[in-house]
Design a protein that fits this description.
about 110 residues, mainly alpha, Double Stranded RNA Binding Domain, 2 domains, about 60% helix
Amino acid sequence: MAKFQCPKCPKSFKTNNGLKWHLLHIHNVQYDEAQADSQYRQAAGESNADDFATLYLLPSVPIELVKAAYRTLAKLHHPDMSNSPNATEKMKELNRAYEAIMKRQSTE
């Protein structure tokens, strides 16, 4: 069964409703439905295509191209290099996608 991890603390929940309540009442943060859905799909192992799409790649590309695409996008979206207000969030998403692809590659 997939678990929903709180982004603010190490606590995890069985349902997104539990996470929603926790974020609102403990951390005073609004619940992000898209983030929870992505986290659920990742925990269920369904995010393979999404990870490649985050890096603007097709799932059939060689691992060397995955590494090159990640490095290029990391340079563009790194918070120290980008003036974008959401650079930190974009960098976190790139890191998550890259790590998921590399983890799947190492287990195959």
